[in-house]
Amino acid sequence: MSLLAPLLLPHDVVPDDNCLVVNDYSPDNVNQQWMTSGDRLMNRQDPNRVLDLAKEEPEEGEEQWGPGGRICAWNSHGGQNQQWQFEYL
Description:
Layout: E1 7-8, E2 23-24, E3 34-37, E4 40-43, E5 49-53, E6 71-75
Antiparallel strand pairs: 1-2, 3-4, 5-6
């Protein structure tokens, strides 16, 4: 159960840059269903689509990934920006 419930991230409703948007929960929408596999979050309907922290072009002296980064649904490539740590409360 997410603290954001009943809001979910569907991978079928994305703007031009593949970034996800939060939508109302729809129990029959398989695009809203995500599952863990090791350190990845993958879409239940299309397991090759995983949550990905979008690469940004940083300003000089800034990190490539940081606060305010965009989360997208992207094809799995195993990169560090697709690896997540899970903390169960």
